[in-house]
Specification:
Four copies of one chain form a homotetramer. By secondary structure, the first copy, chain A, is α+β, with helices and mostly antiparallel strands. The first copy, chain A, has one domain (3-134): Hotdog Thioesterase (Thiol Ester Dehydrase, Chain A, Roll), CATH 3.10.129.10. In chain A, 23% of the residues lie in helices and 33% in strands. Chain A is built from three helices and five strands, in the order βααββββα. Chain A has a five-stranded antiparallel sheet. In chain A, a hairpin with a 5-residue loop joins strand 4 (87-96) and strand 5 (102-112). The radius of gyration of chain A is 16 Å and the shape is elongated. Chain A starts with a strand and ends with a helix. Chain B binds chain D through residues 16-17, 21-27, 30, 48-50, 54, 56-64, 67, 109, and chain D through 16-17, 21-27, 30, 48-50, 54, 56-64, 67.
Chain lengths: 137, 137, 137, 137
Amino acid sequence: MAFTYRRTIRFADTDAAGVVFFPNYLAICHEAYEESLAADGIELRSFFGGQDLVMPISKSQVEYLRPLTCGDKAGITLTTASLGPDSFSISYEVHRFGPPKKLAARVCTEHVCISPRTRERHALPAALAAWVAHHAA
Amino acid sequence: MAFTYRRTIRFADTDAAGVVFFPNYLAICHEAYEESLAADGIELRSFFGGQDLVMPISKSQVEYLRPLTCGDKAGITLTTASLGPDSFSISYEVHRFGPPKKLAARVCTEHVCISPRTRERHALPAALAAWVAHHAA
Amino acid sequence: MAFTYRRTIRFADTDAAGVVFFPNYLAICHEAYEESLAADGIELRSFFGGQDLVMPISKSQVEYLRPLTCGDKAGITLTTASLGPDSFSISYEVHRFGPPKKLAARVCTEHVCISPRTRERHALPAALAAWVAHHAA
Amino acid sequence: MAFTYRRTIRFADTDAAGVVFFPNYLAICHEAYEESLAADGIELRSFFGGQDLVMPISKSQVEYLRPLTCGDKAGITLTTASLGPDSFSISYEVHRFGPPKKLAARVCTEHVCISPRTRERHALPAALAAWVAHHAA
């Protein structure tokens, strides 16, 4: 089930070309990830503070389709896919609300669960596996 | 009349000390300024794109009282003060919602209206002067 | 011919996991792009201020291999590839200097030249085409 | 003894007004602080990773005098002042190299040493006290 996060584009997101600085699409999509985890009852501080297990991002991909500017109302819709017991991907579509609504970017990230001590792969914690299943495309 | 903007603290706001990176308080307060301008009907893209007049910040001050971490729910309350026909200040209080609600930072910025061509001071545009009056402490 | 840019990892680059925030790899690679353009005599302010032609990024890809932390000495090596008269790609390798030297990330961006007024594709300006040829893999 | 750090202004530093986004002056000055600590032999990862003692910033002040744009060559000169056994301040001047050289901003930060467990003030570690003495105005 897709999850949608709404976000106004801020002056801090922009660069001297007057539009959202291209790395910031990844940061904005990560906000949607955080909001979605929180909505499923996962506590962010301990999740990202990671003493036991950490979930680093191993890959990211962005297609930039239309620029976004300060004040634009954006919607970021995410769906997930399991890549095995210890990894998953998230696909995001970033829209600018209109009318007409326009697709601004497509983003994909891959995440791997590892033990911070050994750096070895480890099965996803149950709450995260449930979150992946909940938002599977 | 004070204006309050609500904002969840994001992973992107934090640094390796696990808390909001200190320059980001200014960026978060600027979001409250943007939201408040938009709420009073000022169009952000042209306001910050500034062909005719620009409103650069001439001073900023922050007192950091309590750290904020990823997932915290914050409220940023702003009030304004006129400093003359061509300048104004904004005072912000950043709270972390609780319970109990705690003051995390006090921020103040000063803004000057200038002509981008001559760099000379110029009276505030009417819509901005009205915004300053509307939110005066 | 490859171009290498050296960069110390800063506290501002990090996040609450204690390592470089993943979107910031794109920003750090863009610095290498800027430094390389400047080294070939291209004036950055007018290049990125873009009245006549703009060079937005249409795609980005990152593989994150090893985390980087505050104080690390990094080297970013770029090479280019022409994708036609109006577009090119840049491949980056981000290393952490050691000893031993370790590959931290592989990054790729695609760039398209367009006219800002019509949003239509346009041949690269001569100085940029020369830069692409100079750094071709 | 003053310490000077040289830094090219990057596209990532700028905002839609075409100049350095005002919170980023604090981040750029923090880079000068990091570089200066490293030059005096303080290891940044453990310093900012802070298990034993942490040095949060309690206040910051910036006067913005002249805008900086992408490609500008800047110099950030810092001097320190002791504020007691457990705190100190840093004064920064940010210049744009010319000719002529121009002052772009004046920045001041105050830092307090605390124990991360008790949040109580604690005397500066010896290496940091020596750094403060070394760069006293």
